[in-house]
Amino acid sequence: ECEFFFTFCSLWARRDDDVVDGAGGGGGGGGTTLSTARGTRANVPGPDPAVVVKMKDVGVFQDAAKDAELLRTALKKFIGKDSDTIIAVFAKRSREQLVQISAAYAKTFKRDLAKDIKSKSPTSVDFRKLCKYMMLKPLRYDCEMLKEAMASKLGADHAMLAEVLCTKTAAEINDLIVAYKTVHLTILGDEVRKASKGFFSKHFMHLLEGLLSCKRKKDDDEGEGDLEAVKADAELLWKAGEGKWFGTDEMAFIDVFTTRSFKHLRMVCDAYVDVPKNKKQHTIDEAIEGETSSNFGRALSLLVARARGDMTDFHVHRLYKSMKGLGTDDRTLMHTVITLHATSSLQKVAEEFYHTYGKTLSEWVHGDTSGDYRKLLLALIGQESVDRYGEPRCGDKPGGRSPRPGGGGGGGAAGG
User: Which of 24, 84, 92, 16 is nearest to 61 (CA)?
Assistant: First the structure.
């Protein structure tokens, strides 16, 4: 009770700190000055200055063996480790490059890089997890995320399951099913069904089964994108939802959303508002919100975002939820940052995050994490800003757009 009281007091003291005076929070983070419509904030958290220097020394990727040697030297320190060098290498390198570096490390030193980082970071569980995940190939990484999502003692992480499965084509899901059986020696579909007992809605379960059946067509398949077929599917969705006198025909939604190509589905979503009987001219988003709920509705909305090719708002909301309130959902935070860093879209999401919530992503991360874990996350956010704009922006909002009304707030208790 005392621990909760002091944590609550520290969070209360940080409320509405939109105008910051003096140096930023602990953890050795760098800072910059950020001007907004609500005043000037000094020392907005950014990449650690020592890490920034190391990142300049690391330079551009040239040779995996060279980086492996650099990491080995950093990990061989008699006392502790040169964590700044490790963080600099991981922040500067792409997933593909880190996979090469890990292989070169194993070949040259006959050692496992992830295990060496773990042995040198016995107390920083989140830091070593983040490093480990960044070195995995995409398929292996997805297998690990699915396994963790279904192994939680508090029940399956339905949001993680939906994100991994709803964003993939039929071919990608088929590859994932094969890889999952190879890695974990179990059938993915069976694992999903076991994890769903007593927790998921039956419609969400049917949706996942539809995705795992790998029946989604390709964009160039015959009939996909045909205007008449698009209109027919849009009318089908209206009749199954808003046009139905009572209830909702969820199976009709599942059929369209799991078997049509993403290109075709995007056209259906756009055409929904023009369905003749849709007198109120509701969008597909409004129809999903009004006719569905819970995990099923959120998964359908995710599929709409995937079909449209812009998942920025989805990732912004995921980041916010991972840090909102007391405590931190570190798995979601790590997964989102890794996913966005791999697709070079982290800075775009960071910009929208500030525009939506009134504080930079770096500020939220700084308030919710600590130690090397915090330093690596801030370095990843800052590095993408460097790659895109040529200078560190520390999560600042390029273009000077003001945050939306009602934004703001802060992170929860420090974790990691």
Answer: 92
What does the alpha-carbon distance between residue 288 and residue 273 come to, in Å, rounded to a whole number? 13
Q: Which of 175, 154, 151 is nearest to 165 (CA)?
A: 175
CB burial string 347-375: b at 16+ within 10 A, e below: bbbbbbbbbbbbbbbbbbbbbbbbbbbbb
Contact 363, 44 (CB under 8 A): yes
Residue 269 and residue 252: Cα distance in Å, rounded?
A: 14
Cα angle vertex 302, ends 305, 254, to 5°?
110
> How many H helices and E strands in the chain?
22, 2
How is residue 7 written in tokens? 């944590």
Q: What is the pTM of this model?
A: 0.83
Q: Report the alpha-carbon distance of residue 128 to residue 175 in Å, rounded.
A: 27
pLDDT in tens, 12-55: 443 333 322 333 333 444 554 443 333 344 455 678 888 888 88
Centroid of chain to Cα 83: 24
Distance CA 86, CA 82 (A): 7
Average pLDDT of the chain to the nearest whole number: 84
SS (H, E, C) 318-370: HHHHHHCCCCCCHHHHHHHHHHHHHCCCHHHHHHHHHHHHCCCHHHHHHHHCC
Phi, psi of 165 (to 5 degrees): -85, -35
CA end-to-end span of the chain: 21
Backbone angles phi, psi at 298, to 5 degrees: -65, -35
Q: Is the pLDDT of residue 416 over 60?
A: no
- The yes-or-no verdict on residue 224 having pLDDT over 90 is no
